[in-house]
Design a protein that fits this description.
567 residues, alpha/beta, Rossmann fold
């Protein structure tokens, strides 16, 4: 079987520009950055290209790693314009020969700069530009030099090996990609706000899919996510999916030379729905969808009816229940019911001998009342007595005076996971623990939102020996995360987005799990990642599947954090 050669590109639209250059190549402007490009012709081979386009072979491969195994008609090779640009006023500049019909405003629009910027670099343009060859600034020299220093050299690899483009900023690869058809998340912190820092970085890299020998088993994963690449300004929402993709790409690359080959496709799911549906070929083993409930349902329906060998892996729509009736869907987050069951099961075991104390503020939030109600019912069924404390404004010493911490142990369970509410009861509990003859007799059990606590709030968790349940957790001190963070910087020459959960790590974990699972390397579908784990099961009476993985995270008084898997 011959597989269609194509390349995943993160750049959805390309505005062709006409200009004169030392390389004598046309130019494309992509997301505000400018590239020389060359479309490979039918008669071209990799060894004939250096002479034809004026680039040494090593530089062609440096900026187009997908060409290591050869080129084919239609492949688009790109090179940052800074490759042979001059430096002027601290900027790389390229030359633009003004055509007879052009105006300064049209040229400025082509390059995404202002007419005043052109005049700044070409003073004579103030009197008119007819017949001029203009210097066009494209990027600051020092920034581009720093980026180029981080670009790894490309070494040839065997022809039957999948090639992954090293993500040097400025590299773009694209083959057989429709302009409108190119390529993170329902909240993973339950009901809490995602913490996000802005980033100007856009998705720039891709994986090249090369022809595979017929006898080689090839697995295929497709990402259908809203990168919003046709928009001028990247939204925070699309930043998250871009970040997820980056981590996913790293995970696939790391495993790309082991076992069966894995190909990766990606599509911007903001394209018209009819166009997106045509991307479901039936050859994909796994399709990852976004947090768009309706779109997920539509894709899952098509997969179930027309692509029985494919599975939809729902990482982002946490509350979606399509998997209940559709056998082609995996809910990759433990659903609320199963999560509560697992958390309560762990609570009963961990706090045997403790008296649970439920605390609630008058007129305060009760966003966890479903959980506490289920916990109370379980305690009643097991004959475990519990107490309830209701307080006004702030929990005080008088609210706790009837608790004998000398002879009994108490585990406090609030009916809210909100940080604002936590501040109203935590100090009193911390004081109770510090004055108890045995501090271990006072502790607290809480919620996924608390993994986002920092500074004083996190200190309170440690001071109370708090345990919480969560679908994910990762400590910045974990050796596996430290190594991943280092590799991410080497790949992308920038820091990861500061999110909870960290989207790049989530992408990496998901890719590693799926690749190993498809290859049959995971016993009983179990996997433990840096931040997220997977244990795929099919509950009785459910058509599809769920991830049953859940952590219990303990913020210990000595400042350490441990996490245990609920089984």
């Amino acid at each position: 079987m011959n597989f269609k050669k194509s390349v995943l590109t993160a750049l959805a639209f390309m505005l062709a520009l006409v200009c004169a250059s030392a390389l004598d190549l046309p130019i494309k402007k992509v997301n505000g950055k400018i590239y020389y490009y060359y479309v490979v012709q039918k008669s071209d081979v990799i060894y004939s290209l250096p002479e034809k386009i004026g680039l040494p072979r090593k530089d062609i491969l440096k900026y187009n790693p997908n060409a290591v195994d050869g080129v084919s008609a239609g492949m688009v090779l790109t090179v940052p314009v800074e490759y042979d640009a001059q430096i002027k006023k601290g900027y790389y500049v390229i030359r633009h020969k003004v055509q007879s019909h052009e105006t300064i405003y049209g040229v400025a629009k082509q390059y995404g700069i202002s007419p005043d910027r052109i005049i700044d670099f070409n003073p004579s343009a103030a009197e008119g530009i007819r017949g001029l060859v203009l210097d066009i600034p494209v990027s600051k020299a020092e920034e581009q030099l720093a980026r180029e220093e981080s670009v790894p050299e490309v070494s040839p690899v065997p022809a039957d090996t999948i090639v992954v483009s090293q993500p040097a900023p400025g590299v773009m690869v694209s083959i057989d990609v429709e302009i409108d058809d190119v390529p993170v998340a329902e909240e993973q912190v339950e009901e809490s706000e995602r913490y996000l820092v802005d980033s100007e970085d856009r998705l720039k890299e891709g994986i090249a899919l090369v022809e595979q020998p017929e006898e080689e088993k090839t697995f295929s994963i497709a990402l259908m996510l809203p990168f919003d690449l046709e928009k001028e300004q990247e939204s925070k929402h699309s930043q998250l999916y871009t970040e997820f993709y980056r981590g996913f790409l790293m995970g696939v690359e790391k495993l790309s030379h082991e076992g069966g080959k894995v190909t990766l496709e990606a599509y911007d799911s903001t394209m018209p729905v009819d166009s997106l549906k045509t991307k479901i070929t039936g050859k994909q083993n796994v399709i990852i969808t976004s947090d768009n409930f309706r779109q997920l349902e539509d894709i899952a329906k098509i997969v179930n009816e027309n692509a029985p060998s494919s599975m939809v892996f729902n990482l982002f729509a946490v509350k979606d229940t399509t998997n209940v009736t559709n056998p082609s869907v995996i809910q990759a987050n433990i659903p609320r019911k199963q999560m509560y069951d697992a958390a309560i099961r762990s609570f009963i075991t961990r706090y045997e001998g403790y008296t649970p104390v439920f605390i609630a503020r008058i007129d305060g939030s009760a966003d966890k009342s479903d959980f506490t109600s289920q916990l109370k019912d379980t305690l009643k069924n097991k004959g475990v007595e519990y107490k309830e404390i209701v307080f006004r404004n702030f929990l005080g010493k008088d609210n706790l005076e009837n608790l004998n911490t000398a002879d009994s142990a108490f585990v406090f369970v609030p009916i809210t996971g909100l940080r604002s509410e936590f501040a109203k009861f935590a100090p009193a509990l911390r004081n109770l623990r510090s004055t108890a003859m045995n501090p271990a007799n006072v502790t607290i059990f809480g919620y996924p939102e608390w993994v986002a606590f920092r500074n004083d709030y996190q200190e309170q968790l440690h001071g109370l020996d708090a345990c919480i349940y969560s679908r994910f957790y990762m400590s910045p001190e974990d050796a596996s995360f430290v190594e991943f963070e280092k590799e991410y910087k080497e790949w992308y020459s920038c820091e990861m987005l500061s999110t909870i959960p960290m989207q790049a790590v989530m992408g990496y974990d998901a890719a590693t799990f799926l690749v190993k699972y498809l290859r049959g390397e995971i016993s009983e579908k179990w996997f433990e990642g840096i931040q997220t784990g997977f244990n795929i099961i099919q509950p009785e009476g459910m058509a599809g599947y769920i991830n049953s993985h859940l952590y219990i995270i303990n913020f210990r008084p000595d400042g350490s954090v441990t996490k245990e898997i609920v089984k």
